[in-house]
């Protein structure tokens, strides 16, 4: 981890097959504002996990990068990403979108980048409350397809991980009537001086 004093401190951190995963809690005070905005957003059933599961689309809404950069949530994300930078490499965002899942949806395991890319995915859980019995965890797998880590949705929780780690968001359980919103910001690794 870098010693950059502007970087957010992680609540938990680990490595899966040598690739980093960090959890950040307590850094998004206005999570309710985002939840209310998402309740009015236009979601389309267009997102797929991987090409062979293209017949099973799930709900998403895209956020334009210029709008993302104006949001307070991006500043918190940027500060968390600073902890992953090195003297040689930084990160810049290239895509942002929100997924929504409800009981009965089918979500599939996938990776977000090729192993040699070392891109990062920043995943925010946007909910005002979440009960342990509601499920909805994000599962992360090791190279043997064993569950290496499970991250529970919590209001305003952020998890940042190497996009080559196989993962899946599980839909909520039957007793959950809340949508499971996850706001993803994808970052590509760039040489220092290449824009961050």
Outline:
Keywords: Dioxygenase, Oxidoreductase. By secondary structure, this protein is mainly beta. Helix content is 12%, strand content 35%.
List the topology elements.
Blueprint: E1 12-16, E2 19-24, H1 31-39, E3 44-47, E4 58-62, H2 65-68, H3 72-81, E5 89-101, E6 120-126, E7 138-141, E8 147-151, E9 158-162, E10 167-169, E11 180-191
Antiparallel strand pairs: 1-2, 2-9, 3-4, 4-5, 5-11, 6-9, 6-11, 7-8, 7-10
Percentage of residues in DSSP E strands: 35-45%
Strand/helix succession: EEHEEHHEEEEEEE
The pLDDT mean sits at 93
Number of strands: 11
Describe the structure.
This protein has helices spanning 31-39, 65-68, 72-81; strands at 12-16, 19-24, 44-47, 58-62, 89-101, 120-126, 138-141, 147-151, 158-162, 167-169, 180-191. By secondary structure, the protein is mostly beta strands. It has a single domain (12-189), classed as Jelly Rolls. The strands form two sheets. Strands 1-2-9-6-11-5-4-3 form an eight-stranded antiparallel beta sheet. It has a three-stranded antiparallel beta sheet with strand order 8-7-10, with no helix packed on it. The model has no long low-confidence stretch (mean pLDDT 93). It comes from Lysobacter koreensis. This is 2OG-Fe(II) oxygenase. Pfam families: 2OG-FeII_Oxy_3 (PF13640). InterPro entries: Pro_4_hyd_alph, Pro_4_hyd_alph_FE2OG_OXY.
